[in-house]
Amino acid sequence: MSANTLTRADLTEAVFQAVGLSRNESAQMVEDILEELCAALSRGETVKLSSFGTFAVRQKSQRMGRNPKTGDEVPIAPRRVLVFRPSHVLKAVINGQTPPAVGEGDD
């Protein structure tokens, strides 16, 4: 796997090693999962992956911003943004702690 970035190819290789599908089938599985995730988010649905976290789309309204170089006020258009909230399990793993048992505090 890559040194600092997890890529689609890395995910495909991990599926290939863990499940034993062909590389092409593994690549298609990864693509199908990512396409479904993107489609659900574009429809405004929340995507929850147990023991990993929750992806959601939030609507941000128009607001005034400031150009840091000139100091001029500039309107920032309304937009939808993607937010991710990690589960307690993922937070524990990232911090080198023992994750809580599955089902306890999952987000």
Report on this structure.
This protein is α+β, with helices and mostly antiparallel strands and 107 residues long. It is built from three helices and five strands. The protein has helices at 8-19, 23-42, 88-94; strands at 47-49, 53-60, 63-66, 73-76, 79-86. The strands form two sheets. It has a three-stranded antiparallel beta sheet with strand order 1-2-5. A two-stranded antiparallel sheet has the order 3-4. α1 (8-19) packs across α2 (23-42). The chain is extended, with a radius of gyration of 19 Å. The two termini are 28 Å apart. The model has no long low-confidence stretch (mean pLDDT 91).
Helix content: 25-40%
User: Biggest sheet, open or closed, and with what strands and sense?
Assistant: 3 strands, antiparallel
Strand order of the largest sheet: 1-2-5
Number of helices: 3
Radius of gyration from the CA trace?
19 Å
Order of helices and strands: HHEEEEEH
Structural class: alpha+beta
Key words describing this protein structure:
3-stranded antiparallel β-sheet; 107 residues; two-stranded antiparallel ribbon; alpha+beta; 3 helices
